[in-house]
Amino acid sequence: MKLDFLHAPPSWRRVLTIAPPFVWLILFLLVPFLLVLKISFADLEFGIPPYTALAEFSDHTLRLVLNLRGYALLFTDSLYVATYLHSVKMAAITTLCCILIGYPMAYYIARSEPATRSLLLIGVILPFWTSLLLRVYAWIGILRNDGLLNNLLMGIGLIDQPLEIYRTDLAVYIGLVYAYLPFFILPLYANLVKLDTRLLEAAYDLGAKPWQAFLSVTLPLSMPGVIAGAMLVFIPSVGEFVIPEMLGGADTLMIGRVMWTEFFNNSDWPMAAAVTCVMVMLLLVPLVLFQYGQTRELGMRGGRRNG
Amino acid sequence: MAKPDSRLRALALGLGYAFLYVPILVLMVLSFNDSAMMTTWTGFSLRWYHELFSDRALLEAARLSLIIAAFTATAAVVVGTWVGYVLARMGRFRGFALFVGLASAPLVIPEVVLGISLLLMFVELSDLFGWEGSNGAFTIWVGHVILSMAYVSVIIQSRVRDLDRSLEEAALDLGAPPLKVFFQIVLPLIAPALVAAWLLAFTLSLDDVVIASFLTGPGHTTLPLEVFSRVRLGLKPEINALATLFMLLVAIFVVVAHRVQNRKGAST
Fold first, then answer.
1. Among B82, B142, B172, whose Cβ lies nearest the Cβ of A5?
2. Closest CA to B179 of A9, A181, A218
3. Per the CATH hierarchy, to which homologous superfamily does domain A77-267 belong?
4. CATH annotation of B15-267
5. Cβ contact (<8 Å) for A134 and B227?
6. Tens digit of each residue's pLDDT (9 = 90 or more) over A223-251
7. Which of A251, A305, B95, B162 is the most exposed place for a label (fewest CB within 10 A)?
8. Do the Cβ atoms of A276 and B113 come within 8 Å?
9. What is the C-alpha to C-alpha distance for residues B99 and B108, in angstroms, rounded to an integer?
10. Using the 8-state DSSP alphabet, how is residue A45 labeled?
C-alpha cells in the first residue's frame, strides 16, 4: 500500500498540510464575500465606515436591523433591471463569439504538428500575459471616428461616412471578445489535445465523413472544455468594468459600471454591496457549473491515481 | 488519418491571430508617429518615448507598481504552490468542494466583486481592531496576492500532477521526512513552473486596475491606475510608447520562460 502513503500520511501531517491554505482561503475569500452580503443589508451613514451596523446591543436587547433599501431599489427601479439584463445579454453574445472564433482556433492548434503547436500556443498565451488595459486601449485608436478602421474603409471608398463604433455597444463587444478569447481557447485546447485520435480513426474506418466524425466524436468529447472556457468568458464578462468604461458609450449599461458609480461617485457602499450580491446571485448557476466541473476534474483525476 | 483541411485551417488561424495581434501592432507603429493627433501618420519620431521618460508621475507610478508586483509574485508563488500541491496530492478531504471553489474563485469572479469584498474586509478589520495599517501599497499587495494565487495554483497543480510519483515514493521509502521530500524533490522538479507562475503573478499585478482602485490609499497610484485615469477619456500618445515597451518586455519574458520550460520538460 505504499502508493497510498501520500494520500494517507499520518493524519496530523495531512491536517497540517491542508489546514493552513484552507484557513487562508476562508479568511481572505469566504469572509470578505460574506461581509459584502452583510453590508448590503446596512444603511448609508456619514462617517467611517460609511454604513450602519446591523446588530446593536443596548438596554439588554440585541437589535438586528436588516435594511432592504438597496434590494428594494434594485428590483423596482427599471434601470437596474435593464442593466442586469443587458450585462447578461452582452456576456452571452461575447461568449458565443468566443466559441465561434475560438473553437476552430483551438481545434487546429491541437491538431498541428507538435513543433508548430507550441509556437501557435505561445501566440495565444502571449496576449494573455500582456497588459489587458493597454490592449483594450489599442482598440480606441482603431475604432474612433477618425481612427484607423474608418480611415482605411474611407480610403478604399467602401464608406463615405465614418462608422460610429467607438463609444457604442459594438466597440464593447469587440473589446470583450478580444480580451477573453485566450481564456476560451486555452482550456478548450487542453481538452482537445488529449483527445484519443484512435476514436477518430475508428470513425473514419467505419465510413464517417470528416464532418460526421467531428460532430459525433470530437464535439461531444470536447464539451467539458467548451463549458470550462465559456464560463471563463461569461462570468467575468458580466461584471466587467474596464472595457465598457473605455470603449462603451454613456448608454452602455453594464452592472460593473453601475456598481462602480454607486461606490466611487455616490459613496453608497451598502447600495454597491447590494448590486454586487445580486450580480453574484445572477452568476450562481454558471459559477456552480464551473466549480462543479473543476471539482469533478480534480476529484476524478485524484481518484484515479488513488485506485 | 485524414489531415485537417488546410485552407480552413489557414483561414481560422489567420483571422484569429490577426484579431489578436493587429491592435498590438497598430499601437506599436503609432508609438513612433510624430503627430499628437495619433490617427494620421506625420512621420517617424521618438518624441513620445522622450516624453515618457521625462514624465515623473508615470515613472513614479511604474516604480511603485514594479515593487508591488515583485512582492505579489513572491507571496503568490508561496501560497499558490501550497494550494496547488494540496489540490494535486491530497486527494479528497472534508470541504474539498469548498476548497476548490475558493481556490479557483479569483479566476472567474468579476474583479469588482473581489475589489469591494477585500476593501470591506480591510475596513471591518480596522473597525474591529483599530488597525490603522490600511496603507495603500500594503492592501493592494494583499489583493493582488489573492488574485494571482489562483492562477499560480492552477499552474502548480497541473505540474505536480504530471510528476512521476515514484521519485517521491522512493525517497519516502528510504526514510526521508515528507517535508524534505517536498523541498528536495518536488520543488526542484517543478522549478520551471514556479518561474512561469512567478512571472504570471508579476504581470497580473502589474496590470490590475480594478482591485487597486478599491484598495489604494492616498498617494499610492500604481501604473495601471495612472494609465487608466489618463486613457479613459481618449488617446494619449505617451501611453503608446509605454505599451510598446511593455509588450516587448513581456514578449521577451514569455519566450525565455517558454524556452526554459521546454528544455527542462525535455530533460525530465
1. B172
2. A9
3. MetI-like (1.10.3720.10)
4. 1.10.3720.10
5. yes
6. 989 999 999 999 999 999 999 999 998 88
7. A251
8. yes
9. 15
10. -
